[in-house]
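Field reference: sequence -> structure
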Amino acid sequence: MDVRVTTDAAAFEQTVFPFLQQDPVLHTLIMSNVRARVTGAHVEDEPSYYASVHDGAGEVVGAAMRTPGRMVYLGALRPEYAEAVADAYLDVPIEQIGVAGDRPAARRFADRWCERRGGTATETKATRLHKLGTLTPLSAEGSPRLMNDDETALVAAWVADGFADEFHEPSLEWAEDQLKSKSMWIWEAGGEPVSMVGYHHPVFGACRVGPVYTPPEHRRRGYAGALTSHVSAEILAQGNQACLYTDLANPTSNKIYHEAGYRQVADFVDVEFTA
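Structure field:
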């Protein structure tokens, strides 16, 4: 087995996408992040580090990535490759903050990392990847529409409020990108925007829904569920598969997405390292 690390997103895409595209939903995070950097849709001042895992014949059998400000992401990496990937990232000149992915792989990576670098590893979050099966439309007062030109500041404020720990780029620039790409939907009720749902454009036919956000004063009225089901219908109408992640600590959102027709694909965890 051989692990190769590169900062060249285009070369990494050429190497690993034939393997990852066998299940574009399961590998949605790696594929969409790499594609955004290859196309120039996402530009950063610091390099990303991509790892491809090869068997004895040189065939790709796994992949991982570490983008600026993020944990190492293993996704659905098989556990038996985790230690080798951890060893490969030991030589990368970046500050490691943790690892995310399939729990057995993430734990084995973390154990190896702490064995080599010291410190401790703590599981901090559990998420679930869902794939849409048969869509059941959800309803609420109001109606959906694409984000308007004058709503970039609003969308930026919402994402900064709801996802401060996840978004490491200027929220206004991010909101302007959503406007340009027509990938952000708004639910409007009583003439007022009350919820938003974005989505990532397809990579090998898979679209990931998110972020989903409703301000506290408008929650528990079904807006996010109705808008998510609408965006999901749009994705299906374009001939693509819809998927999304949920926080397992939020049973309400998991229940709503299940009602809309989303079903479990895989569970993942975040593991943070401390000195």
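Note: The chain has a mean pLDDT of 95.
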